[in-house]
Amino acid sequence: MEESWDFEFLSRMADSCVSFLSEFIEDWLANDMRVSIFKILLGWLILSLIAIHFAWKIYGNTVNDMYYRQGTGQNGGSPDAAPHLSGWQSAAKDDVKTHRE
Prior knowledge:
- The protein is mainly α and 101 residues long.
- It has helices at residues 2-29, 33-67, 87-94.
- The mean pLDDT is 77.
């Protein structure tokens, strides 16, 4: 009994996908303004994704190297064990400013 339910569910899903695709193809072949706009936007999206892919292939290592800098220091990598107070915190602790009215 459970197998027939699974088959019915899969059959309904396949029918809905086929009907969606057939309606999509009918709209795609129609000479409608909204279809033309959709085609232009879809082409722009695909072109942008291809351009991003090739730019990342060319400049990806440079961007990674800039983001994950090597070494230690203020702009360098992160140390294994951070000190109790960083340079900014210790400087702020020395120059305690209070507000007076």
